[in-house]
Design a protein that fits this description.
By secondary structure, the chain is of the alpha+beta class. It contains seven helices and four strands; from the N terminus they run H-H-H-H-E-H-E-H-E-E-H. Helix 6 links the parallel strand 2 and strand 3.
C-alpha cells in the first residue's frame, strides 16, 4: 500500500515538474473556481428583484435618467481626463442623482479598439473611476456609485478598427437601491392622511 502511494506521489511530482507556473497555479485553485466570472448569483438577484417589483422600478428610473440627462460622456484618444463637456454632463447627472438618495448607479468605462485588450481594460476602468470621482466631488456618496469596465472590443457603438471618439466613453446607469424600498410614515404624513380620511367620512352638504 505504501509502495503504491509513494509511486503515485512520485508520478504526480514528475508530472508537475513538466508544467508551467501558470498550469501549477491553475491546478492548485479550488474546485469550481473558474466557474465564477463575477456574475455568479446575478440570475437569482434578478429574479428576486422582479418578484419584489424592484426590477421594474430600476428599469423605469433608468429610462427617465437616460431621457432627462446625458448619461454618456466621451474622452480624447488614450485619455481618462474629463473635458469641459464631460464635466457639464456629469454636473447634470449629479443634480439628477441627488433627487433620489436611495438609488445606486453604475458607471461603465469603454474604449475604442485601438490597443491591446489588457491595456484597454485598464483605460476603461480609469475612465469609469474618473467619472465616479467627479460625481463624488459634486456631493454624491461613494457608496451609491460603482465603477465597472467594458472595453471597446465588446460593446462599441461604432464598429471600426480605428480611432472613434464615440466608442471612448463612460455610461452611467441606474443599478438598484441601497436597501429594499420601505414606506416611511412620519407624523406630518399621518396627520395629513388622517385629515383626508376624516373628511371623506363626513356627510356631504346637499342643502345648497
Amino acid at each position: 500500500m505504501r509502495a503504491s502511494l509513494a509511486l503515485a506521489t512520485l508520478t504526480a511530482a514528475i508530472a508537475l515538474s513538466a508544467c508551467t507556473p501558470q498550469q501549477i497555479l491553475d491546478f492548485n485553485r479550488p474546485a469550481g473556481d473558474n466557474l465564477d466570472d463575477g456574475t455568479f448569483g446575478n440570475a437569482t438577484m434578478n429574479n428576486t428583484m422582479v418578484m419584489s417589483g424592484e426590477q421594474s422600478m430600476v428599469v423605469n428610473l433608468s429610462r427617465r435618467f437616460a431621457a432627462e440627462v446625458p448619461s454618456t460622456i466621451n474622452f480624447a484618444f488614450d485619455s481618462a481626463e474629463l473635458d469641459g463637456q464631460a464635466r457639464a454632463a456629469l454636473d447634470a447627472q449629479a443634480a439628477w442623482i441627488k433627487q433620489y438618495p436611495y438609488v445606486k448607479f453604475r458607471v461603465y468605462g469603454h474604449t475604442d479598439k485601438v490597443g491591446s485588450n489588457a491595456y484597454n481594460k485598464g483605460l476603461g476602468m480609469r475612465r469609469a473611476r474618473a467619472a465616479v470621482s467627479y460625481l463624488v466631488s459634486r456631493g454624491i456618496s461613494r457608496s451609491r456609485l460603482e465603477a465597472l469596465i467594458s472595453y471597446g472590443e465588446t460593446q462599441p457603438l461604432i464598429v471600426t478598427e480605428g480611432r472613434e471618439r464615440r466608442n471612448r466613453r463612460t455610461v452611467t446607469e441606474v443599478s438598484g437601491f441601497l436597501e429594499p424600498k420601505k414606506l416611511l410614515f412620519d407624523g406630518k404624513y399621518m396627520r395629513n392622511t388622517y385629515g383626508i380620511y376624516i373628511g371623506s367620512a363626513q356627510e356631504a352638504n346637499t342643502s345648497e
